[in-house]
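step=predict obj=Annexin n=315
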Amino acid sequence: MSTLTTPPNGCSPRDDAAQLHKALKGLRSDTAKIVNILAHRDSEQRDLIQQAYETSFSEPLYKRISTDLHGHRALKLWLHDALTRDAIIIRKALTSSPVVDYQAVNEIICSRTPSQIRRFKDAYLSTYHSNLDEDLDKQLSGDHKKLLVAYITIQRYEGPELDEALVQQDAQQLYKSADKKIGTDEKTLIRIFSERSSTHLAAVSSAYKASFGTPLEKALKQQASGLFLRCLLIILRCAINPSMYFAKILRKAIKGMGTGDTRLIRVIVTRTEIDMQYIKEAYLTKYGKPLSVAVRSDTSGHYRDFLLQLLGSDY
């Protein structure tokens, strides 16, 4: 469920474009006005505004904002549609220097549905003229690479139906894969986690606990490690409760010494039009205070205002 508050139906993309142009003129941009307009326009409206802006002023709005509003990463990311945005995040993460931003790569790929993955792979190809699976193959290694390449390549079922016999079979296979006498069976982990639906994996998690008395997540931590384990856990957590997964990620981004701005921006901007209301509810349940209160206390200026407007009301 989205938290985005959009303007009345009478809002004109041409008028918005004119107001944005006026706000971007002069020595100092009216950042508050720019934020107030764009933070309350959905993906389709933002696209129409950008078309109107370029038609009227012979310049892409994204280019003008990038030039005039230095460092406003959240706003620039927001201008893109969801699929292009995911493609941009992954591309930047894969090409970051001096090392790949594995956190961003893992989070985007492992938390997306099969249909979202198919579509942002197309966006990646059209934007960068490169296949995502080939780029993952070049930049990653080991079981981490094998899992992610399989995860974006294999077509998975997205519906709610379950095969209970297969659920029990997979739970047994996962238990056997951790046999200390023969070592962890990574191929089994990759196969199950890349081929099964989220509904199925959530059921496997319940069956595993019921059959063996140990949470599947705990068992995975005893079997795998490093980047491979991180991907397995994201897939499992998003299968069981994606809202709680993102609530915990936001908590990690906010707490401690300094705010993890990159991750905070990534989650809020990419989830606002999908399920941010559920994430806010999960955050409140888990941590006892509204997400907006935590964001307000750890950010400042127009950056804070923009994120808070995306988050919307607490009620």
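step=describe
The domain at 13-70 is CATH 1.10.220.10 (Annexin V; domain 1).
step=end
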